Amino acid sequence: MYLEKINGPEDVKKIKIDELPVLAHEIRDALLVRASKHGGHFGPNFGMVEATIALHYVFESPKDKIVYDVSHQSYPHKMLTGRKEAYLSERHYDDLSGYTNPNESEHDFFTVGHTSTSVSLAAGLAKARDLKGENGNVIAVIGDGSLSGGEALEGLDFAAELQSNFIIIVNDNDMSMLKIMEVSIRILLCLERLTVRQNAICLRLWDLTMCMWTGATMLQLLLWHLKRSRTALNRL
């Protein structure tokens, strides 16, 4: 079992790429068992398993900072950052918050539970990094539903002017509670115009809710995109 041996992101990197789908399967099994006994956020986490594995495989958390919108999809992230027992052992189900929490781990940067905040929060981290003369990537993860919020739009506007190393990952899984397709499409089209020339990259992840059927292919695609983005920004 791979998950039992993971105590931090460095252990994720030790797994061969073609074996990562097995890790994804183990994470989903743990999520399903925990949800059946304890409740909690389920769908958001099930849809972010491969993406979370890819993020920790490519980037160097906590030097590279990952900020999740709402953060109710952060359970796989917690499993891979030294908190797996809260998802594998029933005795520890209540040990952790349902959201990211800096008091739990150096891999969490904000106590988040509200929508549309990740881009603004991550932009603040990127700005602070630049002012202090530090390096490292900053990654904001946001869903299509959260993109409709005013703070997300404000964050996107600032990100375009930041002129710095900043990555936005959009999980466009059509799971928004509101039908905002026209607005989302316009926003995503604007995001796709963010290029490396502006020192910002946006990745759009299509329908991650289907990853359970195409885990190996999706993981390889995600790893390729994230590595390409990291390499491009490091050349700036």
Explained architecture:
The protein is an alpha/beta fold. It has helices at residues 9-12, 20-38, 43-46, 49-58, 75-79, 85-88, 118-131, 150-162, 181-192, 215-234; strands at residues 65-68, 138-143, 166-172, 200-206. Helix 8 links the parallel strand 2 (138-143) and strand 3. The N and C termini lie far apart (40 Å). The model is unreliable at 193-199 and 206-215 (pLDDT under 50).
What would a concise description of this structure say?
The protein has 236 residues and is α/β, with parallel strands linked by helices. The protein has helices at residues 9-12, 20-38, 43-46, 49-58, 75-79, 85-88, 118-131, 150-162, 181-192, 215-234; strands spanning 65-68, 138-143, 166-172, 200-206.
Features:
10 helices; alpha/beta; 236 residues
Structural class, from helix and strand content? alpha/beta
H-E string: HHHHEHHHEHEHEH
Question: What is the terminal separation in angstroms?
Answer: 40 Å
Alpha plus pi helix count = 10
Q: Count of DSSP E strands?
A: 4
Quaternary class = single chain
Main sheet overview: 4 strands, parallel
Detail the poorly predicted runs. Answer: 193-199, 206-215
Strand content: 5-15%
Averaged pLDDT, please? Answer: 82
Proportion of residues in helical segments: 40-55%
Shape: globular
| Spatial strand order of the main sheet | 1-2-3-4
